[in-house]
Design goal:
By secondary structure, the protein is of the alpha+beta class. It has four helices and ten strands; from the N terminus they run αββββααββββββα.
Length: 212
């Protein structure tokens, strides 16, 4: 019947539109993957590595680590609210800010302030980004942690015990109420500091086992 033909035609157009969208998202995923560090980084007594395994084709999870000269190390993890292309764009914008802001004389306070101002102005509070940032002074073995609404990091002690770093702070992009406040962190040789996004928490069962 004509109705069936029209219905099949609508389904065909919908399917084609979906395929085009998936192709665009796959291309976006490939571009997004290029924004993450490609290999572990070692500097002095510190070593950092990271991995991203998104649940969707495009997401707002972001991590980065950058060597600043011979005596500084920046480690950053973030999570943009929402999913899809809008979240991925904020993630890419954040990467650009980090890439153009780290260098001689850089400071975590300036970087976070710039990221907050940019996200607030561009996204107009339609998107926020949680951030956890580590600033490591290699010669002094000093670590500062800056918390902005992200999942609390874990310290993995040498005896196998784990403890959260206690911190509070607003995400980037909220505008009012933003402030930068460092938290000193002490690590002994052989201990690890674990940064992660809430996607990892959501993928685990209450007993710590992965669902399914």
């Amino acid at each position: 019947t004509r109705f069936q033909k029209d219905e099949l035609g609508d389904l065909s157009h919908t399917f084609n539109d979906m395929m085009e969208t998936l192709q665009e998202m796959n291309a976006g995923k490939l571009v997004q993957e290029q924004l993450f560090p490609k290999a572990p980084l070692a500097l002095g007594e510190f070593r950092v590595t990271g991995r991203s395994q998104p649940a969707t084709h495009l997401g707002g999870d972001y991590f980065d680590y950058v060597r600043i000269g011979d005596d500084r190390l920046l480690v950053l993890i973030g999570d943009v609210t929402g999913h899809g292309i809008p979240a991925a764009l904020v993630m890419a914008m954040s990467k650009a800010i980090v890439a153009t802001s780290v260098g001689p004389g850089a400071s975590p306070e300036d970087l976070l302030t710039k990221m907050n101002a940019t996200i607030t102005a561009v996204m107009r509070r339609k998107r926020m980004m949680t951030v956890g940032l580590l600033w490591v002074d290699i010669p002094r073995s000093e670590i500062l942690y800056f918390h902005h609404g992200h999942t609390l990091p874990l310290i993995w002690r040498r005896d196998g015990a784990m403890e959260f770093i206690k911190a509070t702070g607003y995400p980037l992009g909220v505008g009012q109420g933003f402030r930068v406040q460092p938290i000193p962190v002490t690590l002994a040789p052989g201990e690890r500091l674990v940064l992660y996004s809430d996607g990892l928490v959501e993928s685990l069962g209450q007993d710590g086992a992965r669902d399914g």
